[in-house]
Amino acid sequence: MIGMDILQPVVALLAWTMVMWLWMYATRIPAMLKAGLDAKGMVGTTGASLRAQLPDTVSWKADNYNHLHEAPTLFYAVAIVLAIIGQGDGFNTTLAWAYVACRVLHSIVQATWNKVAVRFALFALSSLALMALILHAAIGVF
Predict the structure, then answer these.
(1) CA distance readout (Å), 17 to 61, 123, 136
(2) Do residues 99 and 126 lie in contact, with contact meaning Cβ atoms separated by under 8 Å?
(3) What angle do CA 17, 22, 23 make, to 5 degrees?
(4) 21 Ramachandran zone, left/alpha/beta (phi>0; psi -120 to 50)
(5) Of all helices (H) and strands (E), which one includes residue 11?
(6) Residue 33 to residues 37, 55, 62: CA-CA distances in angstroms?
């Protein structure tokens, strides 16, 4: 179907978000056990309250998982709009893959090394790709 290629990077980013979910819990649960934290006794607390009790390297993964639920929501929406109006192929698909690549690299940097300048550069590049997709959707819709 015309314009549906853009759904591939959408599904790729959805899958990557689940990879980050797995990575987050694969590090968070052992760190909680090591710190002697009992999740059953935690009532009314948030993941943010764990930050002071867990190593930064564990929190970085949770931070990134949360980040994958922020700007990417705009990506999902614009990709669906572009697919619906038949413009989810060609250059728009290339932009979508660039967005996903930047977000995956951002995740890897944040979850491992967490160098803010590098994270920001990747976030800025992904934001530029997202802005271009939104512009293309606006042109197509209006």
Answers:
(1) 11, 16, 25
(2) yes
(3) 95
(4) alpha
(5) helix 7-34
(6) 6, 12, 16
Distance CA 82, CA 86 (A): 6
| Segment 16-49, tens digit of pLDDT | 999 999 999 999 999 999 999 988 888 887 777 8
**23: burial class by Cβ within 10 Å (0-12, 13-18, 19+)?**
middle
46: left (phi over 0), alpha (psi -120 to 50) or beta: beta
With the C-alpha atoms ordered 130, 131, 134, 140, is the resulting torsion angle positive or negative?
negative
117, two tokens: 């300048």
- CA dist 83 and 36 (Å) reads 49
**pLDDT tens digit string along 90-119?**
999 999 999 999 999 999 999 999 999 999
CA angle 47, 50, 51 (to 5 degrees): 100
- Alpha-carbon distance of 11 to 47, in angstroms, equals 26
Q: What is the rounded CA–CA span in Å between residue 19 and residue 132?
A: 27
